[in-house]
Amino acid sequence: MNKTADLTDNAYRYQLTIGQLLNTTRFMSPDQEIVYRDKVRLTYRDMFKRVGKLASSLSSLGVKQGDTVSVLDYDSHRYLECYFGIPMMGAVLFTVNWRLSPEQIEYTMNHSGASVVIVHEDFLGLLEPIRDSLKTVKKIILISETDAKPQTTLALDAEYEEMLSAAPAEFDFPELDEDTRATTFYTTGTTGLPKGVYFSHRQLVLHTMSIGVTLGCFESPMRLSSTDVYMPITPMFHVHAWGFPYLATMMGVKQVYPGKYEPEMLLKLILKERVSYSHCVPTILQMLVGSPVASKVDLTHWKVIIGGARLPKGLAKAALDLGIRVMAGYGMSETCPVISVSNLKPHMLSWDNERKSDVVIRTGLSIPLVQVELADPDGNFLPHDGKNAGEIVIRSPWTTEGYHNDPERSEELWKGGWLHTGDVANIDEEGYIQITDRLKDVIKTGGEWISSLDLENMMSMHDAVAEAAAIGIPDSKWGERPMMLVVLKPQFRGNGVNAGTLKEFMKKCAQDGKIPKYGTPDIYEIIDAIPKTSVGKIDKKELRKQYAQETVRYASR
To answer: Which of 17, 180, 183, 187 is the catalytic position?
Structure first.
């Protein structure tokens, strides 16, 4: 039988668009709360109205389908409204990284073609010096949290809350093609100009569904359910806050938004609002776990996914000992971002914290609909035996199709039909991925490769170490030798822990076979803080630049 004979023009071709994520919440949990710091409490019912008001307001300002609307705000209920309202009207949400320099912000806004800026009053100072250079921006909408009129040289076209209060809640959202571009933002690479990545409605919906299946369907201490209370501690400008605001909204869970990250406010919200699900970079978890308050309060209800940098075993063990359930997740700006999570398998659930910590710090198991392979320099795939290491290459329905207006780097990203991550890893027989380093961060000494991440992880096991970073510094004999930079926990500063103490610890680790003897760092430097990128990753480019110039001094030790 001819299959085409069964087709009818009346069949509705359902499109996977962001607005569809709201359908279940409208009748399952319309009165569930959305909280902003200690300032605002809304219900989902309120949010739906405000999403309509936002779209109505932007439309009245001239925003139309295909336009780009940029946002500079802290994590807030307003940002959540932008996550939905802007793409649902057919415009593109551009989440601006306000930690970039004014020059980089100027570049990304011009490169994206942003026509409207929604900006928190705290970030007006970033826009003022570059306003005359913003070629496409026509309107500026202020977010004000005070009654005082801000002192600014910018011509402001509206204030967010005043704009919404005057707008109708009803907006005739168009039926969009699921391949319509929904979001864009820029990577914070350590070389060259920031690169613009972009994602369609279909990609965001499929990503949401896949992480929902991953965290909701498999037996795991990290299971996410409709009874959880969600709070991001990853900036919402960074890769859609890992996609969790979309998932949390689809599930109708209580959501808490902390605004500006302040340790006291974060802990207050976790305790007062009974926050049970978060995600953050290791630095934030270290800050909270290391707080004097952490050992005095009950945090056993809190589940945290760590990404952005490797989760050190010492930090994972400290969190587990406090009753915090924790695991690593992996992804990139280019992958929307979640590719894998280090879920414990059922037979591991009874293990002690020492054994569990060895698993939860791994890069993890790939989530549904993701294909992961290891490639050698010639593009050949390597076996998943836990030994062979190669570059992680990926395919999934939600990986970016390329870089905005950058065909050359897009071709490089997708050479051979696989997205190239730049991460070196192995995959064991159970399917767990373990990144051993970035291609550009591997320390090459005497013809051997040393994983800077393995060195950092081992250093984190010393009781006195809060943070560690390993880099390669030039060496006339070996090409490079590893150097370890360490931040001590406050209680150990000035208490006899020094470079010699740390070196003896790492030598013992080598003797025990935990790291290769040739990989034991020669030089140890105790510093006050490790430089970070705008998204909280260790800035190894800056460290190499800083310490490579001092090779002679270190070589003389």
So the answer is: 187
Going 73 to 75 to 78 to 83, the CA torsion angle's sign is: positive
Amino acid letter, 424: V
pLDDT at position 552: 43
User: Among 161, 449, 507, 525, which one carries the catalytic annotation?
Assistant: 449
Catalytic residue among 106, 121, 178, 334: 334
The answer to whether residue 161 is catalytic is: no
User: Low-confidence residues of the chain, pLDDT below 50?
Assistant: 1, 552-557
Q: Is the pTM of this model over 0.70?
A: yes
Give the helix ranges, DSSP H, for 322-425: 353-360, 407-413
Asked if residues 271 and 297 have their Cβ atoms less than 8 Å apart, the reply is yes
To the query of whether residue 219 is one of the catalytic residues in this protein, the response is no
Does residue 398 have an active-site annotation? no
Domains of the chain and any CATH numbers: 18-185 (3.40.50.12780), 201-438 (3.40.50.12780), 443-555 (3.30.300.30)
* Helical (H) or strand (E) element with 214: helix 201-217
Sequence-ordered list of residues with C-beta below 8 angstroms from that of 169, at least 6 positions apart, any chain: 49, 50, 52, 53, 56
Note if 334 is an active site residue.
yes
Q: Whole-angstrom Cα distance, residue 136 to residue 115? A: 5
Rounded alpha-carbon distances, angstroms, from residue 443 to 196, 321, 438, 473? 29, 33, 10, 8
Residue 347, φ and ψ in degrees, nearest 5: -70, -10
Write down the catalytic residue from 260, 440, 444, 545: 444
